Amino acid sequence: MSAPTLELEIADITESAPEVSTLTLKHPEGRVLPSFTPGSHLVLECSGKANAYSLISDPVMPTSYQISVLRIHEGSGGSRWLHERQPGERLTARPPRSAFAPQLKARKQLLIAGGIGVTPIFSHLRAAAAWGIPVEVLYAHRPGHGAHCDELKTLAPGRVRCLDSRAEFAAAFAEAVIRQPIGTHLYCCGPEPFMDIVVGTARGAGWPPGRIHTERFGIDALDPGDPFEVVLTESNQKFTVPSGISLLEALEKKGFDIPNLCRQGVCGECVLPVRTGAVLHRDHFLTEEEKESDEQMMCCVSRAREEELEIAL
Question: Which of 40, 167, 198, 304 lies 20 to 30 Å (CA to CA) from residue 283?
Answer without folding.
Answer: 198
